[in-house]
Amino acid sequence: MVYDPRGGGNVHIDRVLTNISVAWPNNGFVGEALFKPVPVTKQTDKYYVFGREAWQVHPGGDLRAPGGHTNEITGLSLSLDTYFAQEHALMVPVTPEEMENADAPLDPFRDGTELVTAKLLLVRELAQMTMVTTTANYAAGHSTTLAGGDQWNVYATSDPIDDFRVAFRTIHSKLFLEPNLAGIPYQVMTQLDHPDFIERIKYSERGVLTSEIIASILGVANVIVPGVGYNSAVAGQAESLGYLWGKDVVIAYVPERAGMRIPAFAYEYVWRYPGAGLQAAERWWDQNRRCWLIRVSRRYDLKMVAVDSSADSLAGYVIKAAVA
Q1: 297 to 116, 123, 222, 255: CA distances (angstroms)
Q2: CATH numbers and ranges of domains, the chain
Q3: What angle do CA 277, 283, 289 make, to 5 degrees?
Q4: DSSP strand pairing (181-183 vs 143-145)
Q5: Is the per-residue pLDDT at 52 higher than 70?
């Protein structure tokens, strides 16, 4: 059922207000900012990974004397990687009793579809967060874990701007491109009233740190602030609420769009549903259960793609435990 009877409420209430309700929105998803969606036409396939031969200077130089021999270079090296867009799906039943008894503004089909979609995207967000905050997924030198006086809420001894600069230099030294995105979770962002930042804005008309001001100070194009909530308790148990993104900061180079011959921090390979785009919502009547079933599905694979020979990320950097 869409409306869980354990919640203690009813789908039919005398003279219910139609202009207000109480819900728990979870609109802090940021995964697509890090994992650019790549629509694909097959569930599994290969993609090219180009070498970096263009950065090499030919040892014999490029001078040619009249009538002389021209030095010949070696071509690009190519390797292949693969994706497999596995199906992720959830469904919820809607009973005729719900449909018959539900008063406006309740809409079992709409509410059920939104509920299933939110849960499906939450699973994806959790997978994306886990992938980009795991230090083992990064090349050597592309991660650090702060502790004690180095954590940014210890204003007297920590140096967050220098920590960011180290991350920027590390990424740039591998891509020769400036990282353009910093993911600073809500729990970190709300403790960044750090003297290092305040000193840089104290003479401006804005005395409150915002993501735009942080981006300007750091010289990064985009700062995102994940604030999505997460209940880690098993259904039926007492709630265990927390922030899904925790206290780890991710810095990355993310292109405006997926394309050929450009590095990228991560992609989401999404296999399109015929006639439904990247995500499909279905509804059908189950005669045996005598209810409608609503199913939402998405077929995808999450990959960190600008990697070294050990498949460790070169286009990102993670700062673990940025605050206590």
Answers
A1: 9, 12, 30, 27
A2: 24-53+75-320 (3.90.1690.10)
A3: 150
A4: unpaired
A5: no
